[in-house]
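Exercise 4. Each item below gives a protein and its sequence. For each, produce the structure-token representation.

Item: DUF58 domain-containing protein (Streptomyces bathyalis).
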Amino acid sequence: MALTGRTALGAALGAILVGLLLPSWTGVLAVELPLLIAILYDLALAAPVNQLRFTRSGDTSVRLGEHAYVDVLVANPTRRKSRLQVRDAWPPSSWPEGTAEAASRHRASIAPGEQRLLTTVLHPTRRGDRRSERITVRSSGPLGLAARQGSHSVPWTVRVLPAFNSRKHLPAKLARLRELDGRTSILTRGEGTEFDSLRDYIPGDDTRSIDWRATARQSTVAVRTWRPERDRHILVVLDTGRTSAGRVGDAPRLDTAMDAALLLATLASRAGDRIDLLAYDRAPRATVKGRAAHEVLPAFVSAMAPIEPALVESDTRALASTALRMARHQSLLVLLTGLEASPVENGLLPVLPLLTERHTVLVASIADPRIAEMAGARGDVDAVYEAAAAARTQLERKQTADRLRRHGVVVVDALPTELAPALADAYLSLKSTGRL
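Answer:
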């Protein structure tokens, strides 16, 4: 292993001093001195690290689960050939466990006056901003016995966006939306709330949709088509309090809620509705308001990326007050939160009359698949006790959901993999029945 500059110089001076002071060490010095001279020679020919120039470029954002490529352009303006070991330091969560050491280190040999492009490939395992402040470089001599080492400040930030795994459900939901929007022949009376147009009768159409006045004026039977009302307002509220920090399956509850919100936002913007975002626990953590349809998804993912759950009980009254200020006219309020009995009874239920007085309220919650597994477990005494505890938990969630429904709230309680499509279906159902 090559010695760094100060270490090599200190070793050489120390050995020479010992040889001069202790005559018995003269033989040792005669053997070691050539090596020490070689080390000093190697150190003298190593390119100085403080004169190297580093410039960053590359990705500034990446979806969770994908790769980001950050380039470092290393320029050698010196007259010596640079034999470099470069460490591009990033937080440990920038790579899967055990791969950071290999992914962050590079080797390069750069001739005088030339430059070399080094690429660091990141594979982040968490949302949020990943920052790199420093690049550490070691410049070795031609013999590889000694090296100069130093650091350069070359800051760069990569924002890791939510994964949006529920995107795969979008084609099916858009097909259902087209049916509601009067673009297919299977649309029937009652599936929309706004009159759209007349078309010729097709066998199989609901006879109640026949427009007899229009039929009397032409030679064919005319049928009315309907479409959902457009330009409705939707406010998605993410509860970022302590209940959102719990992990369900492989991800925190908050990440699953974000994924469902992204599918709903994409679908609603395609439907012509206006959709805003509020993330809140005891204070607003993120807001998105008044974006055009093509801006909604990018704005949502960028706002959600740095949000982390706060380990405090959410202030539901303040959350409701903030939501009402953002939704001054009749809207659909989608609250992504937990269905645990205590937070709902002490926090949400007291403020529900304020929300339901003018708005349609939908509460979406993530059910723990482990509870369902425990409820069906049998075989020994421990499994039976676990099954009883799980059944009690499921009963409490059902009772809490029923209490919300009695207040006119639409409740979606689904497993992590099913929450996003279930929330989208609930939105489409509200549109088809004219409640939105």
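Check: The two ends are 70 Å apart (CA to CA).
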